[in-house]
Write a structure and sequence with these properties.
This protein is of the alpha/beta class and about 290 residues long. The chain has ten helices and twelve strands. α2 (about 50-60) runs antiparallel to α10 (about 270-285) and α3 packs parallel to α10 (about 270-285). The longest helix is centred in the middle third of the chain and has 16 residues, at about 95-110.
Length: about 290
């Protein structure tokens, strides 16, 4: 029999049902789920609004590339516009946080015309080769080196060290305002503002990775809103689709225009079912226009 290649330890529990904050095992017991699929089921397992929207979309159009217009895409864009970060009027849907980080890095390289990336100790941005290059933990990095060249790691929350790490050519800095995998480390307001200022001095773009913190998980639609800064590129994911695999990259028209046709692509990104899931999450949470970044 074919065996599944597991990347994590088998917990010995077969889940047969999930609803809200609970899962049920094949042993007949109900469990309180504090895992929620790596934080994906922010609105609860099998949220009825999201499930209904997905089922309705499956009956209409399931697979379609963004080379074609669709009702699902147009309606999703209309809903997402209410919470899009200020000044970032272009969005591309991807399938995972790591894939979104890859696009963000490519946008930064293309828009700046430079190499060099700055990130920080404790950072985690994904396990694809580009995202892994800006991830701190040597346990994840070393088995796959050499990775991208020109990546520098500053000390997280060390304002005094920013000038040193930004020396030389830098296309972008990528930062989590609250580190998740790194230990739930909250950035100071002074540090995030310092990163924004250092990026401006270096002519670099500021990428804020909100795959884990975005979509209301910190009390604001986007966690960066607590810090009084504005990103050039915002990466989102996990909770955005209410359990359906989807991520997003927000950026400005100026930056988006630097990426030519065919310089990035995705088979499933922006598919109608993902669009329906995102729209349903937005309607369910009913964010106010004042929550816009």
């Amino acid at each position: 029999m074919l065996k599944y290649l597991r990347f994590y330890e088998d917990r010995g529990l077969t889940v047969v049902k999930a609803l809200g904050q609970y899962v049920w095992g094949s042993d007949g017991r109900r469990y309180l789920d504090l895992h929620t699929g790596h934080g994906v089921a922010f609105l609860g397992h099998n949220n009825p609004h999201v499930v209904r929207a997905i089922k309705e979309q499956l009956d209409e159009v399931m697979t379609l590339t963004t080379s074609f217009r669709s009702r699902a895409l147009d309606e999703m864009l209309d809903s997402l516009s209410r919470v899009a970060p200020r000044g970032l009027d272009y969005v591309a849907l991807q399938n995972s946080g790591a894939e979104a980080v890859e696009l963000a890095l490519k946008l930064a390289r293309r828009a700046s015309g430079k190499g060099g990336l700055v990130t920080f100790t404790g950072s985690f941005h994904g396990r694809t080769l580009g995202a892994l290059s800006v991830t701190w933990n040597p346990r994840y990095r070393k088995p796959f080196e050499p990775l991208l060249e020109g990546v520098r790691f500053g000390r997280f929350n060390d304002v005094g060290g920013l000038d040193e790490v930004f020396k030389g050519e830098v296309s972008a800095v990528i930062v989590e305002v609250v580190q998740g995998e790194g230990g739930v480390n909250v950035a100071s307001r002074e540090f995030i503002r310092g990163v924004r200022e250092a990026a401006d001095r270096a002519g670099a773009l500021l990428i804020i990775d909100e795959v884990q913190t975005g979509f209301g998980r910190t009390g604001a639609i986007w966690a960066y809103q607590h810090f009084g800064v504005e990103p050039d590129i915002l990466v989102a994911g996990k909770a955005l689709g209410g359990g359906f695999p989807v991520s997003a990259v927000f950026t400005s028209e100026e930056i988006a225009s630097k990426l030519g046709r065919g310089e990035h692509g995705t088979t499933y990104g922006g598919n109608p079912v993902a669009c329906a899931a995102v729209k349903a999450c937005l309607l369910y949470t009913s964010p106010s226009p004042r929550d816009r970044g």
